[in-house]
Amino acid sequence: MTETLATARQLPTPDETWWRQAAVYQIYPRSFADSNGDGIGDLPGITSRIPYLAELGIDAVWLSPFYPSALADGGYDVDDYRNVDPRLGTLDDFDAMTQALHAAGIRLIVDIVPNHTSDRHEWFREALAAPKGSAARDRYIFRDGLGPDGAEPPADWVSTFGGPAWEPVGDGQWYFHFFAKEQPDLNWNNRQVHADFQQTLRFWSDRGVDGFRIDVAHGLAKDLGQDLPSQAELDATPKDGNHPLWDRDDVHDIYAGWRTVFNAYTPARTAVAEAWVASDRRARYASADGLGQAFNFDLLEADFDAGAFRDIITFNLGLAAESGSSTTWVFSNHDVVRHATRYGLPARNGDTAKQGSAWLLSGGTVPRLDAALGLRRARAATLLELALPGSAYLYQGEELGLQEVADIPAGQRQDPSFFRNPGVDMGRDGCRVPLPWTRAGASFGFGTGDAHLPQPAWFAESSVEAEDGVADSTLSMYRAALALRSRLQAAESLEWLETGREDVLAFRRPNGWTSITNFGTDPFTLPAGEVLLASAGLLPGSLPGSLPGAATAWLQL
After folding, report:
1. Residue 10's pLDDT band (boundaries 50, 70, 90)?
2. What φ, ψ does residue 145 adopt, rounded to 5°?
3. With CB atoms 3.0 to 4.6 Å apart as the test, which of 60, 100, 394, 508 could cross-link to 107 if both were Cys?
4. CA pair distance 27, 213, nearest whole angstrom
């Protein structure tokens, strides 16, 4: 792995708890800003847009993978954990970006992908060249195939992207990949794997990184044993801490070692787990002797419904108190249909299928999308989110009210889920389309040439240029909300308020900052107080009046 010595960069402030109620903005680097016109976003492009991020009012950037990669899975197939993909820049560009973010008062969280490497990683190339039973192969999960010549896979397991989860290497052995075949899973029973990732955490921390987002944090520890279960047996195994692949109790031994690394810095480095686990098992990932924080996807998966939101908020604040951490709130990211679109589709009503999947399969035609209603609800939900105690994670473009792009031609798609599940999964390209910065241009200001994913014509009126300075634009609402949030932020608690209606949710923070969301259609009369901001129909400083349906207002009571 490539390494370069670098002195630690100056942090914005030494606050050890900055992350507890931070507003964090996720950048998918290949789709944020392209500085050289090659169609791919890059680190200098991000640096050039830091004034925009500062004006937006965020506290930190979460940077999705920027490492050398064949892009078999959008950069989550990592060739070298301690370098920058040359298409995105250099380590010097990374340092310049970090320094510029810090100078603007913005911290930096980077993605770490510890469950698997790419098949181009030097370790995996070494493993393929080594014989069975070698130390090189022990860093990964290799098994002998079934049958006299090992021609059958060790088990009938299915990859999360579709197709078999075991890949032959030509000598009777197969390797396990829970995701794409280009992403072989690491063996975390190997101490060399532990040591190398701790070295990676130090490498980026020494360069000034303030924290880490841990991809597939619940998947590292595995216990496969000699006799592998069938896929049906795996599916039937409870995920109670002893599942062979997921959310094993011993995964927390790994993160205890990482916490030692984090605490060696001043301030201590932070981490947030992407752990798709049962809600009551999330607290351990967020514990002070582990990663410190974990993503809460409960609101992301919920319908736009007052009762569901209240139950989820109450439950997760309780979990945060249990772990000593703060909770996290998120509606959109690089893996899901944008929430401005989800909220314009029929309610899920308990359906466990991926939100918006049927709509994507139809090319965005069935069921009918009510984009205006979806955006109205998304604005209301975001204003509620930003009033909650805890961290708010925002995804690039949601501040523009961007909808999901559904009609990307098959020949221009990139996500492996689309290619491995034809007719079943359209993939995640629709939320990864490069941002529109201007009304015109080959890629709406993303770069001087075309973008790596096609942008629709309607991006023009959703661009930064089109929304900048427009009082009722989604961008203006986000800027105003984030500025107020920074000024009003209070202790990590809330008090639910009685509204007299099941479809209206209201809570007050300890300083009198009050958020009221009307999930219904009938107007709701606001209580007396100063209206600070509303997602629709009200202006800052107006006298209390009626809050329309699908809207949120902040008041000072």
Report:
1. very low
2. -75, 165
3. 60
4. 12
pLDDT above 60 (res 542): no
d(CA 48, CA 182): 33
Residue 194 CA to its chain's centroid (Å) = 24
- Write down the H helix ranges in 497-552: none
Across the strands, what pairs with 111? Answer: 213
Q: Exposed (0-12), middle (13-18) or buried (19+): which is 377, by Cβ within 10 Å?
A: buried
Claim: this prediction has a pTM higher than 0.90? yes
Q: Does residue 213 sit in helix, strand or coil?
A: strand
What tokens appear for 548 in the block?
């329309």
pLDDT for residue 495 = 97
Q: Which residues contact 317 (CB under 8 A, 6 or more apart)?
A: 327, 389, 390, 493, 494
d(Cα 268, Cα 155) in Å, to the nearest integer? 42
Rounded CA-CA distance 374/395 in Å is 16
Tally of CB atoms within 10 A around 100: 17
- Name the residue among 252, 205, 231 with its Cα closest to residue 153: 231
Chain centre to alpha carbon of residue 484: 24
The strand pair at 107-112 and 530-534 is best described as unpaired
Containing 474, the helix (H) or strand (E) segment is helix 474-488
